[in-house]
Amino acid sequence: MKIILKSAVVVILLLSIGCSKQTPKLNYGEVNLIKSGFMFTEGPSTDANGQVYFTDQPDNKIFKYNPQTDSISIFHQSAERANGLYFDKNGHLLACADELGKIISINQDTSFTVLAQNFEGKQFNGPNDLWIAPNGGIYFTDPYYQRPYWQRTKADLPSEDVYYISPEGKLGKTEGDFVKPNGLIGTPDGQFLYVADIGASKTYRFKISSDGSLTEKTLFCNEGSDGMTIDKHGNVYLTNDFVSVFDASGTNIAKIKVPEIPSNVTFFGADKNELFITARTSVYKVTID
Question: Does residue 61 sit in helix, strand or coil?
């Protein structure tokens, strides 16, 4: 009987230890305002020098934030209603320009090249967000949001999808069966792609094949997102009512409250631990420990 009791005590202690383990939390500092007075900020991306570029789509401008001087200046004054941005390995700034449904590459002299502008002869819905894989392949989402500056009032394409432009420039539609894909981000090693289906209030993870196609669709979390990013630890940052942070297993580890509803996020700083947040009429930053 004594032996049984001792065994029971051991079992209880082990269960107690197991139950005392808490979900890991993300440590972060105070959310600080950088600047306000914009119309609707979006699409931040950091260049090789650590400067963050972001858009104000209703005002049709791209701005540049310099962390060294804590100042913001205009980079482009007419970027075809650019939304999501991402720098390629050659330093060109790529943009989802939904004025006429294009993916464009912007040079430092503000001239640009059109990389894609239709699929099978039909205009894109409205390219929204993009990510460039290590091999140079480009993934972008194409949801339909009626814009006040459009002449058209309905979509040319029958569905809202994710597209892939290969390193050779070949355009194709990925398989995913989305309601309204919006934010997306890939892992630095190019193995996985996260896609937020904001229309379904879910985010999925896909395996990226060698030809760029997406396979192994897996539910990552039951939250949608506008813009997204990923940190050096593999945590995924979504933007909805908060900046919601999930670890690689899909466990929520933080909800960072921002004074305005966030739209997109990216990292900057020498240690890539400064989170830049676009949020409606303002831009903010917060240090992630």
Answer: strand
Longest dimension (CA), the chain: 84
Q: pLDDT-based confidence at 108, cuts 50/70/90? A: confident
DSSP 69: T
Domains of the chain: 29-287 (2.120.10.30)
- Return all residues near 156 (Cβ < 8 A) that are at least 6 apart: 122, 123, 125
Cβ(262)–Cβ(44) under 8 Å?
A: no
Ramachandran category for residue 176: left, alpha or beta (phi over 0 → left; psi -120 to 50 → alpha): alpha
Pairing of β 102-106 and β 112-116: antiparallel
Neighbours of 114 (CB within 10 A): 12
Q: What's the burial of 248, exposed, middle or buried (CB within 10 Å: 0-12/13-18/19+)?
A: middle
Q: What is the pLDDT of residue 12?
A: 38
d(CA 59, CA 241): 23
Task: Give the per-residue SS3 of 127-161.
Answer: CCCEEECCCCCEEEEECCCCCCCCCCCCCCCCCCE
Task: Provide CB contacts within 8 A for 6, sequence distance 6+.
Answer: none
> What is d(CA 27, CA 43) in angstroms, rounded to the nearest whole number?
24
Q: Which alpha helices (DSSP H) does the chain contain, by range? A: 2-20
Burial 13-23 (b: 16+ CB within 10 A, else e): eeeeeeeeeee
Cβ contacts of 88-94, under 8 Å, gap ≥ 24? 88/132, 88/136, 89/132, 89/136, 91/47, 91/48, 93/45, 93/47, 93/53, 93/62, 94/130, 94/132, 94/138
Residues linked to residue 141 through DSSP beta bridges, in sequence order: 162
d(CA 237, CA 245): 5
Instruction: Give the integer Cα–Cα distance in Å for 6 and 240.
Output: 50
Query: What local confidence, expressed as pLDDT, does residue 111 receive?
Result: 87
Q: Do 236 and 185 touch, CB atoms closer than 8 A?
A: yes
Mean pLDDT of 5-23: 42
